[in-house]
Amino acid sequence: MLVVVRCALAFTALVTWIPASEHGRWIALTYPSLLLYCAYSVIVALNSYRLDWPVPGRVLHWIDVLFYGYLVEITAGASSVFFYFFFFAIMIASFSRGFREGMAVTLAAVAMLVVFEFILAPAGRAFALTHTRL
Q: Quick check: pTM over 0.85?
């Protein structure tokens, strides 16, 4: 069932994301990246249902974390609307693998955001970990 939720999240992001000038440095990469994630989600879902393939939950939520980190950084950094996608991976990790895995995913997401912000932040912009849009 989680593979269907992943598909719904991917396609919702593709359909509802509206590019604007404040959305980031590499805006042109966003739609192809979302299309790639949609294709990945569909392939995982089809494989899990058609081939009765046991979905390795641990691998999938780590792939999600990496992709969401990438997506956040190509859009608007920590203020990206895609920042909230991390909660999907955190919830999946927590409910399927327990507290330790959920905490590991959370810490990895935070570390990834901090590292990306330090490395990829545009020149002249001050690093602000609290810079999120609500």
A: no
